[in-house]
Amino acid sequence: MAGSLSFLSQPRIRPVTKRPPNPSSSFLELLNVSSKSLQVTKHYDLAVVSRVYRREIASVQGENPVKPDFKRLCKERKVEAALETMDEKERNGGSADLLDIVKLIQICADLKLLEAGKKVDGYVMRSSSKFKSSVVVLNNLVEMYCKLGDTNRAREIFEQMGARNLDSWNKMLLGLAENKEGEKALEIFSQMKGDGIRPDGSSFAGVLMACVCVGEEKEGQKHFESMSRDYGITPTAEHYEVMVDLLGRTGKIAEAEELVSNMPVDPNTRIWETLQKYSKTRAQGQLGYPLSPPGPEARWHEKGKGQPQHKS
């Protein structure tokens, strides 16, 4: 009996098991788990060490490493970090969301990041058809390149689009006009109408800006009159401002004054300033309007009729 129970007096041997590191351990303690096997040394770049750390902890704990939130990076406008996350997602067989791509394109345009914008462009062009065939994505790329001054690439994307909507034409038209490429903008407007696309107020703002670029006063007058006559579009203050600029640049000061005097809406400060910029006589009262505009709500008043009338 005693012999059969002799094993009770022997010390128990516990099986050796590999325990995962304590999540609360310090960074160096956790990194030490894999320092020998992965040959991590102090000469490694911090970013490399960080990646090794995340992979090792994930393998030991059986969890996926936490990846940066792409939407958060876009919201914080950390473009380079967002691009790295997007590339990593692509390498793992995934892809970014369409709205995320659009947001990233807009950030590149706002922050004037041409090289980053080119990377997003490259991602779109080598990705699945859901991006390359998206009118929204391609429209934003056209707008981005125009804002960053690369109208050649914008035109390439525009011409390669399988389908275009009114916004596509307007972004290309306005982009060329804003980059002082008036003749090309007028060509786009003609092509637009030839393809049966009905222009809107933004289209006419772009074509009037194009006329300013090339100094085509008669062409501008024709389009300005065509807005309401042929398309039923009521000119806004923006259209009047561009027309005043066009008339002033071509020396038609009297015509510019008459245009402002007949405006159905109150001329704003920008219109006053544009008109006065081209006036030959600067003395207050000689042209029938004050040297400094009385405010955005001031109305035109004819010479000799007293103070400007305000809209009630």
From TrEMBL:
Pfam families: PPR. PPR repeats lie at residues 134-164, 165-199. GO terms for biological process: RNA modification. Gene3D superfamilies: Tetratricopeptide repeat domain. InterPro entries: PPR_At4g14850-like_plant, PPR_rpt, TPR-like_helical_dom_sf. Keywords: Repeat. Residues 283-312 are annotated as: Disordered. One of its GO terms (molecular function) is RNA binding. PANTHER family: PENTATRICOPEPTIDE REPEAT-CONTAINING PROTEIN (PTHR47926:SF347). This is Pentatricopeptide repeat-containing protein.
